[in-house]
Amino acid sequence: MCFLLSLLYAFFLKLNSNLLGGAIPTELGHCLSLSTLNLGNNELNGSIVEGIPNLPQLQCLVLSHNRLTGHIPSNENPKYFRQDTISDSTYVHHRGVFDLSFNQLSGEIPEELGSCLVIVDLLLSKNRFSGLIPKSLSQLPNLTTLDMSENELRGEIPMEFRHALSLQGLYLGNNCLAGAMPESLGLLVGLVKLNLTGNKLSGQIPSSFGNLHFLTHLDFSSNLLEGHLPQSLTNMVNIVGFYAQQNRLSGHLDELFTASTVWRIEILNLSSNSFSGVLPPSLGNMSYLTCLDLHENGFAGGIPGEIGNLTQLEYLDLSRNRLSSRIPDPICHLPNLKYFNFAENDLADPVPGIGTCQNLSRVSAGGSRNLILSAVMAGTLTVTVLAVFLLRRKKWNPKNGGGGRRRRGFDDDGDDDPEKPSGGDGSAIDRRLYFQTNAKSKEPPSINIAMFEQSLLKITLVNILEATDNFCRTNIIGDGGFRTVYRATLSDGKTVAVKKLSHGKTQGTREFLAEMETVGKKSRPQSLQFLDPPLSACETHVSTDIAGTFGYIPPEYGQTGRSTTRGDMYSFGVILLELVSSREPTGPEFKDGEGGNLVGWASKKMKKGQAVDVLDLEILDADSKPMMLQTLQIASLCLSDNPASRPTMLQVVKLLKGIRDD
């Protein structure tokens, strides 16, 4: 209480990123001098203090990443975020930030927020807000970022947003919004990012979007949009990421691609639509492309060899079209290509036996499309398997009789074969045929199959999206560690339950397949076809929030709060360190003076010249010692405190292969 009384005249209160629990003290509603209140990233629960809107000096409010419930306090004449000027003696941290994201708040968003003229960033994502988007928000003269994604908002996007000329980021994705995309959005010429994914938006794409010259990311995927892509989109000269997958778009793309010579686009995803015609040679002019996903359309004709000009391309998916002829040789020589998929087309055999195309696996499939081709190149799984193979080679050698205790981290089900790929995308029948690390192996890759004994309803993903309002939260009738159950109303009026399975939670591949087999054996006539389309590598825009485990998270994430590829390299370095040391990343065995974890302990040992002490003594011998020390050195490079100093995954692959070759 004494502490709270001392805050009555405080200007600044920042207690974020602690382990604070319980409710927000009501006394904070009486701290009339507060200009900044930051309680984010704690474990606070209960409701927002009703008195907070009455704080006249408050110009920064951060309550995000807590467990708050209830509604945003409504006041016909709120006093916070309304003071135009502040004295020189007043310090405001991030003036204009109104952040309630990542909570469990509900109810409607108050219209009164439109009078809080100081608001610059209004962040309300990842809650349960319902109702309409307040039209009054368009009156905020300084509004730069509006994020209301992942709520339960309904209705249409307000036409009044055309007046919000300061907007640079508009995020309304994963709600239940309907109607057409307003033509007036094209008047927001300062927009840099526009995300409308996962709604029920219909109609055509406004041609006015061509006026958005500063736009770098445009995402209206997973909606009900129809018609052609307007030619005016070629005027978006700064576009980097364009996501239009899972709609009902149609037409030819040759004119659009031919005119888009000024595009600096890096990610283009037009998959799961109804585009047709031929793939134009002008695709080869998009020299910045790293990801091109056109799967599940109606493209016909040959694959243009000009795609071989896209030297930055890492991901290419042209599967499930009507493409014919053969794979052009230039594509097989793309230097950075890690994944490519041409499955379910009318491609002719033979496949070019050059470059990356040498790693294509092929299998006969019934029907007119008798060739399934795909490849996964130089992924983390391959590198990990290679490292395991190098370090455990002696124990796997049949000459050793298979003796010795089974190492920690391997299952006791006979799946220790380093050559055996694991089915990892969560599909009931995994059609991805993995790149073989051993060119002499003649064994086909394993395919995990879950058999369905009962006949299945003829239903598509689009049908399910419509029946569940794009998996709207209001239709959730059950939730568990590995699935969420939605109420779905089919077009014939039937009401069924749809179980949306997740492959990204706590259960592993075996548990996932076990549930698939259980679903397949159920005799309920209401059981629907299992649908789990794999997440495209192009869709990293969906989330970059940290979802890591202690011991693997790099130190810079504490400042940035966002995941990066360099951060992934740090996590991979921890995995390599686990392999060579046979120790877990955290535990009571590590002292506080050693960083309290495996990385700190190993770093201290290496600085003292005691690198050998880090290695697993059970497999350490004269033959394995040089390899293990070199692997430890690679791990050390990945664990650099400076993200820019960490190697890329391709560089790590070369280093590990160098150990094997030696």
UniProtKB/TrEMBL annotation:
Residues 399-429 are annotated as: Disordered. Residues 1-17 form the signal peptide. SUPFAM superfamilies: L domain-like (SSF52058), Protein kinase-like (PK-like) (SSF56112). One of its GO terms (cellular component) is membrane. It comes from Cuscuta campestris. Its main location: membrane. The keyword Transmembrane helix applies. GO terms for molecular function: ATP binding; protein kinase activity. The keyword Transmembrane helix applies. Keywords: Leucine-rich repeat, Membrane, Repeat, Signal, Transmembrane, Transmembrane helix. Residues 471-656 form the Protein kinase domain. It is found in: Membrane. The chain crosses the membrane at residues 371-391. GO terms for biological process: defense response; response to other organism. This is Protein kinase domain-containing protein. It is a single-pass membrane protein.
